[in-house]
Amino acid sequence: MRLLLLAFHIVVTLILIGVILFQKGENVSSESIKSFVPRTGNSLLTRITAVTAFFFMADCVLIAILIRDEALIRAKNKPGPIQSASTPPVSLPPTNIVPEK
Fold first, then answer.
1. Structure pTM?
2. pLDDT tens string for the chain (101 positions)?
3. What is the domain partition of the chain in residue ranges?
4. Which of 12, 42, 83, 101 has its C-alpha lying 20 to 30 A from 30's C-alpha?
5. 21, 79, 72, 68: which is closest to 49 by C-alpha?
6. Distance (Å, whole) CA 78 – CA 74
């Protein structure tokens, strides 16, 4: 499962990089009004970029969840400290705390 997600992640990353590099750059104009007007043209490359970015982010979340779950499983299966039979268990000295009245 992990290998499949990593392979998918590499493919999606390469597609996302390629689609972003194929997009045409915008001309910067000196008019400040044009910068506040939303663009209405959604090209095919913009839509492909959005879909690919969604798959990239979803894949990143799935990989993070998978790694977290694997770490939790390893922590549960990790053996505790081993005590040899010759050493007695450590005991703490008694405390003489008297509750206040």
1. 0.60
2. 789 999 999 999 999 999 999 887 766 565 555 555 556 556 888 899 999 999 999 999 999 999 998 888 888 887 766 655 566 666 777 777 766 76
3. 2-23+43-75
4. 42
5. 21
6. 6
